[in-house]
């Protein structure tokens, strides 16, 4: 006859701790009565699972044909993760032809024309600009150096002349293309200089984020040169240029074009406040100094206001005399031995 009396179990660690330290001060008795605990349920022993029998090979008679082997079903191709592709470059929705006769009449760089002295001068300037953002063995890379702002202390010192000539010279580079932006909102002159039609541009794109950027770009008849006009004048031009929208816009204009150089024609530094704001969006700043015209005090004031750009260079414009007798461009087109 089986003994059906409940099996007394041992108290747990928590129960023993309560028995030792959890005394009731009034009754001087343990707060937990171990004898009143229900019996511990019996644990059923786990049945050992029988080891899986290894399949025995089937023994065939010597003359029996070989069994047909069923082809394993083809594994389903797992869906490939879509690789993030770089956004394509923004295409210009407008076309324009550069007026080469107008450029020649103003003594500027003329695309496709024989090399002149002015063309050689800007070849030297552009090499310096490229070295600053491409980096050389003895020169550190200028952050955002592919963005170049062309400014001057006062109007009439040659900033637009320099911006257009530099853009035309850079546009023929094999590894780069150029986007020339007219950022002189109050008195834009890039389109007039190049002979291009007017239309929406920089300020329109900043004021209306939903405006397609392609509508604000002009593809010139030079494959490596696009132009963005100044656009519609805005009473809050400085505030728009200082906003995060400008940085976003510049990044969109750079996407899909890793070799792109952006040239911005700035307003005169001492005549319009947007110039100092634009300096914070670029890596290189060229201040054009007009020979026999720009005062040293004006130049110092301009440099002080443009401190937002980490790399400032000066370009002397309108020089009629070279102490070293330098005459670039005269070598081309000459016959005889070199």
Task: Provide structural commentary.
By secondary structure, the chain is of the alpha/beta class. Helices cover 26% and strands 13% of the residues. The chain is built from ten helices and ten strands. The chain has helices at 13-21, 100-105, 117-134, 159-170, 190-194, 202-207, 237-242, 244-254, 274-278, 296-305; strands at residues 23-24, 29-30, 94-96, 147-152, 177-182, 218-220, 225-228, 260-265, 284-290, 312-317. A hairpin with a 4-residue loop joins strand 1 and strand 2. The protein is elongated.
CATH class placement of the domain at 144-317: Alpha Beta
User: What average pLDDT do the residues reach?
Assistant: 82
Indicate the CATH architecture of the domain at 144-317: 3-Layer(aba) Sandwich
Principal-axes geometry comes out as elongated
Our Rg estimate from Cα atoms comes to 40 Å
> Helicity, in percent?
25-40%
Total count of helical runs of at least 4 residues: 10
Taken as a percent bin, the fraction of beta residues is: 5-15%
